């Protein structure tokens, strides 16, 4: 009887953990009974895994170190240094460097196989990191494929040149008049809100596709429609709320996710909407900004 492969899914936050658990319990993954752990649980592994799949940014390095330690297939820290050695970036320690340009930021999220993009969706960010730092809401709206050609081409070039291993990827770009400029490329799905945005617009579950590719069973994602989606996110207040969250405004699109603050809790406010055209989504995001930003800041 063939030995059963042991798969370790390494999560990096509660929402990724819950969604991975949902996929496992629903039988949506071609893997039986994988371990689902966080980086803090690695000291108590019940047995040696055969495959390690990192499900988010903060899980990538612990997963790579575990593969290196156990001699498992997949990316290791040495692979990262080999790629970075061709650049002028410092290799000592764990460094995060951004060179910021005065331009809109766009994201391309998708799935790669053998260095080729098999699925991608693009979104345009509303607001910036400074807005988020001072507690102002930020958002994103998906972009029509016909208008995202240069973003897709730049993202695919980045995926091919790194190269990104089989699985989901997250690429950030500055959208300049002269063409996109790469900000970052990452070999993992976007955060939970970016995943929800992709599911709302296309029906494709990037976390599920990433797991399938990570265990050697990649598929070709098939979008279930040509809809548009957007989200609005307000950082949590510095102190627990004392009032109920405001009701959502009347919206043109469908609300597919709404996490609203509650008294006594310090949580972000997040709403994801979808509609048949980007103008309706953008109008809804403006309404959400007007309704939610001030009420969340004034608890």
From TrEMBL:
Coiled coil region boundaries: none
Molecular functions per Gene Ontology: ATP binding; ligase activity
Keywords of the record: ATP-binding, Ligase, Nucleotide-binding
Keyword Nucleotide-binding: yes
Domain of life of the native organism: Bacteria
Record protein name field: ATP-grasp domain-containing protein
Record organism: Actinophytocola xinjiangensis
Organism ancestry: Bacteria, Bacillati, Actinomycetota, Actinomycetes, Pseudonocardiales
């Amino acid at each position: 009887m063939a030995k059963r492969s042991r798969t370790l899914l390494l999560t990096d936050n509660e929402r990724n953990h819950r969604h991975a658990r949902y996929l496992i319990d629903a039988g949506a993954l071609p893997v039986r009974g994988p371990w689902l752990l966080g980086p803090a649980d690695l000291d108590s592994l019940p047995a040696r895994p055969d495959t390690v799949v990192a499900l988010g940014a903060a899980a990538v390095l612990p997963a790579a170190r575990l593969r290196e330690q156990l001699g498992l297939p997949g990316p290791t820290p040495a692979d990262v240094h080999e790629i970075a050695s061709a650049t002028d970036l410092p290799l000592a320690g764990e460094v995060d460097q951004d060179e910021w340009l005065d331009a809109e930021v766009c994201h391309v999220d998708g799935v790669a196989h053998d260095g080729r993009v098999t699925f991608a969706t693009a979104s345009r960010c509303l607001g910036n990191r400074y807005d988020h730092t001072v507690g102002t809401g930020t958002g994103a709206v998906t972009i029509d494929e016909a208008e995202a050609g240069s973003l897709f081409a730049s993202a695919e070039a980045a995926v091919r040149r790194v190269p990104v291993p089989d699985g989901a990827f997250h690429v950030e770009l500055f959208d300049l008049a002269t063409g996109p400029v790469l900000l970052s490329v990452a070999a993992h799905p976007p955060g939970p809100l970016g995943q929800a945005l992709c599911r709302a617009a296309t029906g494709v579950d990037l976390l599920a596709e990433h797991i399938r590719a990570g265990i050697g069973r990649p598929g070709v994602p098939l979008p279930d429609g040509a809809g548009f989606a957007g989200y609005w996110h307000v950082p949590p207040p510095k102190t627990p709320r004392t009032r109920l969250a405001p009701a959502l405004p009347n919206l043109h699109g469908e609300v597919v996710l709404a996490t609203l603050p509650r008294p006594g809790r310090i949580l972000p406010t997040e709403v994801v909407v979808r509609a048949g055209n980007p103008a309706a989504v953008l109008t809804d995001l403006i309404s959400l900004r007007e309704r939610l930003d001030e009420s969340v800041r004034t608890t």
